[in-house]
Amino acid sequence: MKLIPLILLFATAAFAAEPLRFEGETHLRNVRQLTFGGENAEAYFSMDGTRLVFQSTRDSFQCDQIFTMQADGSGIALISTGKGQTTCSYFIPGTDEIIYCSTHDHAPECPPKPDRAQGYVWGLSEFDVYRCNHDGSNLRRLTDTPGYDAEAAVSPDGKEIVFTSGRDGDLELYKMNVDGSNVRRLTYTVGYDGGPFFSPDGKSIVYRSFHPRNSAELAKWNSLWSQQMVSPVRLELCVMDADGGHQRQVTELNGANFCPYMHPSGEWIIFTSDFADSAGHGMPNFDLYRVRTDGSDLEQITFSPVFEGFPMWSYDGKYLVFASNRGERKERGETNIFIAEWVE
Predict the structure, then answer these.
(1) 5 has pLDDT over 90
(2) Is a pLDDT exceeding 80 seen at residue 14?
(3) Which of 20, 143, 272, 336 is the one with CA 20 to 30 A from 167?
(4) Average pLDDT, the chain
(5) CA angle, 38 then 43 then 49, to 5°
(6) If you compute the radius of gyration of the chain from its CA atoms, what whole number of angstroms results?
(7) How far apart, in whole angstroms, are the C-alpha atoms of residue 71 and residue 273?
(8) pTM of the model as a whole
(9) In this model, does residue 284 exceed pLDDT 80?
(10) What's the CA dihedral at 208, 214, 219, 222 to 10 degrees?
(11) Domain count, the chain
């Protein structure tokens, strides 16, 4: 669950097609739209850069399912069961397998949407982490503890999975072997630690976090947690060693900063943020930014008036894939997958 409801809440009301590239987007070249219709997000490259795995609400599905496609947008194929809700898919490097998170073993229906009377929140449904072949066959369940197990990603050597879980009474980061064995807890701070990805060398993990700063924030956190909900409107980026050591905060932007991903060089983190608009009034706009791992040299990457999110560089650093409300859209809230050549 990587803040997918933000797409719907903050999507522009305009339906006309937006440009594929906006003034100021000097790091992007030859931007191409890969999907056309529905809500598509969290597209991640295979190690060789030829395929993408992503989640989408489309056709007859009422909530997200997992699909794969070629990096040119062709050959879209369903790989999840078509039941429940899915999220957070990722190729296992060195194999022809994929992991993803799903609620289908707990209920075949889509989970109920959270009560917006609590403000902007999303629910912590009964997700578990699964592993399967690239076509969806040979599906195996890797987690079986009650509650939320999601937001999973795989190490570059294909041996470990990092994920978010509520199994110990708080939303913390855990790591396990790619077969689901040897689960280890990595974070221990009250609040939310989630959305993790390994660095290209596998030695560190970048993630997002919300840690209550005062008694009022702690009381709200505990109240939402008791209802199995979380408010993602303030998140900061953090980095830690792959064993959980040396945890440090990278950003101090006081906005919703999420879906961080490291450049193959290990020097930069690209992410989505609304911090530039979060102090204003009305609906904030989300753009892509990058920052060095020490928090310096913050730079804006996209300059559109619509939502931009879920970026990932290809393993060779030549391409960037991301989700956006730009381009050709037919309905309110429609989000599509885009790919661009990366210009350094």
Answers:
(1) no
(2) no
(3) 272
(4) 92
(5) 135
(6) 18
(7) 25
(8) 0.93
(9) no
(10) 30
(11) 1
